[in-house]
Amino acid sequence: MGKYLKGILGSFSGLVGSVVGATWNGIDVMRSRPKKSSKPPTLAQMKQRDTFALMREFSREVSDIIRIGFQAYRVGQTPDSAAFGLNIANAVTGVYPSISIDYPEFVLSKGNLLDAPEIVVATTVDAQLDFSWLNNADVADPLNTNSTDKVAFVVYNPAKQSFAKKVGAALRSAQSYDMVVPATWSGDNVHIWAFFVSASGKVVSDSVYLDATVVQ
């Protein structure tokens, strides 16, 4: 693969003759057209292909969240690439071909803010998740973590294969938030993650998995 600045055609993407043009991390690159193999894929290749496809499909639905949560995780990588690499290594479970997302290990954000201790969720109202946490800003990490940090919640319903997301739901100092989810989710098991974002939107905490919960 080679990079180029200005060619006779300028920047291009897709197939032109025997080369393919693309953009990688903002750099125009060219590479040889891949050759099709006549050999059947090995078991290891099929496992890798299906694992990657599973993670790509799941991550695509929360790419907007990942771009916030992984915005500064690894220099030289896009947030999507950084999150994909971390999650493909740690958040797939099962024995091929029966593989699935390991929800407790799936990470939506990585950063230097403190998460909130003892964050819990209750279901006392139909189609609503009631969150509460402790405000640890002033005593634990006053230089980085603040009462003005805002919490984000991500809820996944496997039965409906659907997400509910709320970024900037409430201030860290509020210590509670009631999140309404679709009424059709009543009785369904859901998986929940939470993390904090600074007032500037530039610094985040690690995401926390809050366990599986049944919506009332």
SSE blueprint and pairings:
Elements: E1 2-3, E2 14-16, E3 19-24, E4 27-32, H1 43-60, H2 63-69, H3 79-90, E5 92-95, E6 98-101, E7 120-122, E8 128-132, H4 137-140, E9 150-157, E10 162-171, E11 176-180, E12 189-197, E13 208-214
Antiparallel strand pairs: 1-4, 2-3, 3-4, 5-6, 7-8, 8-11, 9-10, 9-12, 12-13
Helix pairs in contact: 1-3
Description:
This protein has 216 residues and is of the alpha+beta class. It folds into 3 domains: 2-32, no CATH class; 43-105, no CATH class; 120-214, Immunoglobulin-like (Sandwich), CATH 2.60.40. It has 4 helices and 13 strands. Strands 1-4-3-2 form a 4-stranded antiparallel sheet, with no helix packed on it. A 4-stranded antiparallel sheet has the order 10-9-12-13, with helices on one face. A hairpin with a 2-residue loop joins strand 3 and strand 4. The longest helix has 18 residues, at 43-60. The radius of gyration is 21 Å and the shape is globular. The relative contact order is 0.14. The mean pLDDT is 88.
Task: List the keywords.
4-stranded antiparallel beta sheet, globular, 19% helix, 3 domains, single chain, 216 residues, 13 strands, Immunoglobulin-like, alpha+beta
